[in-house]
Design goal:
CATH topology: Transcription Regulator spoIIAA
Radius of gyration: 14 Å
Distance between the termini: 26 Å
CATH class: Alpha Beta
Structural class: alpha/beta
Number of strands: 8
Number of domains: 1
Largest sheet: 6 strands, mixed
Length: about 130
C-alpha cells in the first residue's frame, strides 16, 4: 500500500495500480466526493493506468451521474464493485448507464484484483 486516507466519507487506500475505497454507512456519494478522487488520481496515478475498487460493506447511496465525470479520467481502466449483496446487481446496472468504461461486480476482493490484473495486462494504449 502506498497511502491511506481516512476521510469524512470513508477510507481510501492507494496501491500501485488501484484505489480501494470503503465508504461510510449512510453517505451519499456526490460530485464533490469525485473531486477528491480526481485529486488522488493526479497525485498518485498521473499518466499511469489504474482501477478503482469499491468495497461496499456499508449501506450508502451513489449519485450515478458522478460516473459521467469519472469516465473522463483517461487512465482509469475500470471500476470494480465488491459486494455479496445481490441487490447491488440492480444498482450496478443503473450505474453502468452513466459509466462508459468497464464496471463489474465481484463477491470478493480477490476476484476483483484478478480482473484488475487482466485489464491492466490487456491495456496497451499509451496514455495522453
Amino acid at each position: 500500500m502506498i497511502a491511506t486516507y481516512q476521510l469524512n466519507f470513508g477510507l481510501i487506500e492507494i496501491y500501485e495500480d488501484y484505489i480501494k475505497s470503503i465508504i461510510n454507512e449512510g453517505i451519499t456519494i456526490t460530485p464533490k466526493h469525485n473531486n477528491v478522487l480526481l485529486e488522488m488520481v493526479e497525485k498518485h496515478f498521473k499518466n499511469k493506468p489504474f482501477l478503482y475498487i469499491t468495497h461496499r460493506i456499508n449501506s450508502y447511496a451513489v449519485d450515478p451521474t458522478i460516473y459521467l465525470e469519472t469516465a473522463k479520467i483517461c487512465n482509469l481502466l475500470g471500476f470494480a464493485v465488491v459486494s455479496k449483496d445481490p441487490l447491488q446487481e440492480k444498482q450496478i446496472k443503473l450505474e453502468q448507464v452513466f459509466f462508459s468504461k468497464e464496471l463489474k461486480r465481484f463477491d470478493d476482493i480477490e476476484s476483483a484484483l484478478i480482473w484488475k490484473d487482466e485489464l491492466l495486462q490487456n491495456y496497451s494504449k499509451p496514455l495522453a
